[in-house]
Amino acid sequence: MIEIKENLTDANCITHAGTFHADDIFATVFLEKVFQNIHLYRTNEITSDMKLEDKIVYDIGLGKFDHHQKEAKTRANGIKYCSFGLLFEHFGRDYLKKLCSANVEEVYQMYLNEFVYQIDAIDNGIFPEINCSYKITTISDIIALFNKTWCEDKDSNLCFLECISIARAIYNRIEQRILDKIKAKSFVENAIAKSESAILVLEKYMPFMDFIITSSNPKASHILFVITPSNRGGYSIQTVHKALDTYENRLDFPSEWGGLTKEELVTKTGIKTFRFCHKNLFCASSDTLEDALAIASLATQKRRN
After folding, report:
1. HSE on the CB side for 293, CA within 13 Å?
2. 57 pairs with which residues across the strands?
3. What DSSP element (H or E) covers 148?
4. Strands, DSSP E only, in the chain?
5. Tell me: the pLDDT tens digits for 73-102?
6. How far is CA 28 from the centre of its chain?
7. Residues 80, 66: Cα–Cα separation, whole Å
8. Best CA proximity match to 27, nearest among 16, 8, 181
9. pLDDT digits (tens, 9 = 90+) for 155-196
């Protein structure tokens, strides 16, 4: 539960008033997860006469959980901390131990990579470089939408609490996906260990890309295609990226397959249930596992030829 208090003495947490950002919003949601009940005081200034000994002060005041001072902390990867990152570093591992008994450090790193770093970076003015003529909306942009516009006469604290409900839902989904993703690692590693070719077959759809790329098993570096049951029915065949930071594939599907109709694919390959190949050559599908294997095998053979 998060409540905003009008008096400092009633609060156990303090952050800045006025316009809010993904930093202080997600920091507040995270603190709620750690401490359950957050009594929040929002203010424009931290003064020397404030009694703060029993309170967590973040994103204001130039203290332990602020990042606006000259000597603010910077990560080894060059990304500066924001208050969310500072709080997550301080409380994160103990919090995660309550969620998962094993792989805490891996889950912690996954939180950083998939959630915390982007909030840290954007709040400190490090924006992703995207070469396009239209606006790309980040999580930070979505949070900013809930501040009042210049035409609205709304209470800032009410806007803050409205945004908290959205941020809490976003946080919960990110957390669930991270916790479920880490569960897939052992299944993927076992499949890699059993593999005898460049084609990896998984019995269920699950996250696999990161685990193949980072696997220490030498077999992993030779995997070109991954076959899984598709949530649209049948089977999906996907390419494997060359690295974590690129969408370039180890091997694309043959260019002559891209964007063809089902009938054209069957005619060109002779594979009866070959029903789709993406025009960008990174995924394909079939009705049967046998044909999925045939598609991946044919794509591999074409590279050799």
Report:
1. 7
2. 14
3. none
4. 2-4, 13-16, 38-43, 56-57, 199-201, 225-229, 235-239, 274-277, 283-286
5. 999 999 999 999 999 999 999 999 999 877
6. 19
7. 11
8. 16
9. 999 999 999 999 999 999 999 999 999 999 999 999 999 999
User: Which tokens sit at 55?
Assistant: 């309170």
Query: DSSP label at 10?
Result: G
Distance CA 170, CA 119 (A): 13
Measured from the Cβ of residue 57, the count of other Cβ atoms closer than 10 Å reads 22
Burial class from Cβ neighbours inside 10 Å (0-12, 13-18, 19+) for residue 253 reads: buried
Residues 51, 61: Cα–Cα separation, whole Å:
13
HEC string for 175-232: HHHHHHHHHHHHHHHHHHHHCCCCEEECCCCCCCHHHHHHCCCHHHHHCCEEEEECCC
For residue 101, what is the enclosing H or E element? Answer: none
- Which residue matches tokens 């967590």? 56
